[in-house]
Amino acid sequence: MIGLVYLNLQSWGQRSSRQKGSSGATFSNPLVLSSLIGILSSLEILSVFLFILFLAWTFYKRISQDFKKLTPVESLKLDLWQLKYLRVATRFGLLAEACLALLLLPILRGLAVFRIIGIQFEASVRYHIWLGTAMICFATFHGASTLFIWGISHHIQDQITKWQRTGRIYLAGEITLVTGLVMWITSLPQIRRKRFEIFYHMHHLYIVFLVFFLFHAGDRHFYMIFPGVFLFGLDKLLRILQSRPQTYLLSARLYPCKAVELILPKDTGLKYTPTSIIFMKIPSLSKFQWHTFSITSSSSVDNHRMSVIVKCDGWWTSSLYDNIQAQLDSDADKMKSIPVAIEGPYGPSSMTFLRYDSLLLVAGGIGITPFLSILHEINAAGQDRCRYRLPSTIQLIYIVKKSQDISLLKSVSSLLQNHPSQKWNLKLKVFVTQEKQSGATAAEILNETSQVQTVQFGTKGPIYAIHGPESLFWIAALAGITSIVFLVFLIIFNHIFVPSEKRSVHSSKLVVSSTKKAPQEKSPSWVADVLIIVSFIMSLACTTLIATILRWRRLKKEIPPLVPSMEENLKEPSSVETTGVVEEHEVHFGGRPNLEDVFSKFLNETGGSNIGVLVCGPETMKEAIASLCQQKSGCFKMGDKKRKPYLSFHALTFTL
To answer: SS3 string of 60-97?
Structure first.
């Protein structure tokens, strides 16, 4: 809650003054480049090292104490090495528990804790993957080793279904392990990207996973992971409410490069920063698939609409393009409506790119989309020069396979003219890798490939504008209310359902801060586990009711907007816009760029100033740019004068 309040105050400060820095900017530069784990910054390496050190210290501390106090159990008749191996397996379960405690934090969207240090949701998903893989490895060793000991000692049938004195049952642990393995296997890239429906449905087994983990580990261990579960449940609730009611596509633009720009209605009060993303679901294509897209428009320019560009790459995107193309080819007077559900936008809390003296933007293919929003925002900020200090030089390196892909630059064609009144200079370098030299200029190619087709859609009902996530103060208050309601229900249920003579035993387990050691209970403690589940469900139900009432009251006060000037805004850009594109822009055919040469020229032109390097594209491109940032962030010679450029690397992710 404190973090949400901090981010809200930071966003207010951003509106009133220029953002001079970012909490995570100092550690954002790449330190380790690996094709296996990707690009790691110094902050990430430090965090991983400290977490591994914590796991190692915890394991050593616990296992050393276990070995000192190790006493044979007569009923089990285990050898000394079997007892030690069983204790090691048990402590590996605690390592899996530590990973599970952090597993859900990286995938929070509205409550993204990593935003405090400048890491966005789309970039933090890999932390979820790392933690999930580590958890499965630890849990597999824990479960397999335990079964191995019970098997060779011929106690597996007795122990697997027996409630332990601590309230645990091993059968629930095996169900938890099998469920986790199914979720992990179906989330592998080979399955997730080709069979998304399988990944989506199997990942909802997390409910089964958490419930049986509670019955296996007991409520005392469940409290270790409860903060992550609590925040995830609240975040899931807010996202479901945010995506309702559904809205409709206002229009679409079909580009010759098999890409489509979708125009969505936006509330005038919704403000978002460049490089923000939205999650979109089109029920007519799939009732379950949510896809992320970078927003190409700027809330400082477009008050009533929001746009994203979708490139055909897979079944879902191709089906969307074919559906719109079919409607365009039909002779119907009015196009059919296309309802959509939207979550977001989610993005950085501040415009960090404004703090640099120069910007180098490197895009590959559809990776150009986040940079379109940056250019629109800089152009809008240039109208208020006294408020923002803008980068003086911006160079856009755009690498495409076909010249048709250049048509995606149509929306920023007016910015390529570099009018004298423009306070910043934009230079474009396009590299077409799979076509031979044509001899055409940037303006000619842009005119030839920018013949877009516009489709206006009909609507079946009112068009609700996208309001985006609720305010951070409101979310913080809702999190506090949910916490209080959970504790109230837990205390009430404890007094109602726990017998008075056993209440002291259960209270010591239900209250984390209790310091008195309770006597061991011979009967199973599943009652306390059920009370936690019911209290959590009731707290979410009450929060859902409050959030639903507030949201519908907000929507009821508003007239569903049909954007007044939408027809004028959706006119196709005329070819006149690109006739003034200056000839300093370069177009190269027949191969990939020599990035080292591009970097050297740009550094010489800017004189080694504070430079922001933003890249969005394939992983191989990101790794190449990150490597160059490492090499060039030192001394270089410009004539007889040495300068030290500072290159700040930022990788933007558009696929999860």
So the answer is: HHHHHHHHHCCCCCCCCCCCHHHHHHHHHHHHHHHHHH
Closest CA to 351 of 240, 276, 281, 453: 276
AA identity, residue 314: G
Strand partners, 431: 399, 588
Best CA proximity match to 510, nearest among 225, 214, 220, 226: 220
> In b/e form, how buried is each residue of 29-53, taking b as 16+ CB within 10 angstroms?
bbeeeeeeebbbbebbeeeeeebee
Q: What is the pLDDT of residue 398?
A: 92
Which position has the higher pLDDT, 607 or 312? 312
pLDDT, tens only, 524-549: 466 777 888 888 889 888 888 888 88
Q: Measured between alpha carbons, how far is 256 from 268 in angstroms, rounded to an integer? A: 31
Q: How many CB atoms lie within 10 A of CB 446?
A: 26
CB–CB of 275/352 below 8 Å?
Answer: no
Nearest to 177 by CA among 149, 121, 137: 137
Give the count of beta carbons closer than 10 Å to the beta carbon of residue 507.
Answer: 17
pLDDT confidence of residue 638: 44
One-letter amino acid of 133: T
Q: Is this prediction's pTM over 0.85? A: no
Distance CA 21, CA 514 (A): 43
Identify the burial level of 88 via C-beta atoms within 10 angstroms of its C-beta, where 0-12 means exposed, 13-18 middle and 19 or more buried: middle
Looking at residue 605, its pLDDT comes to: 79
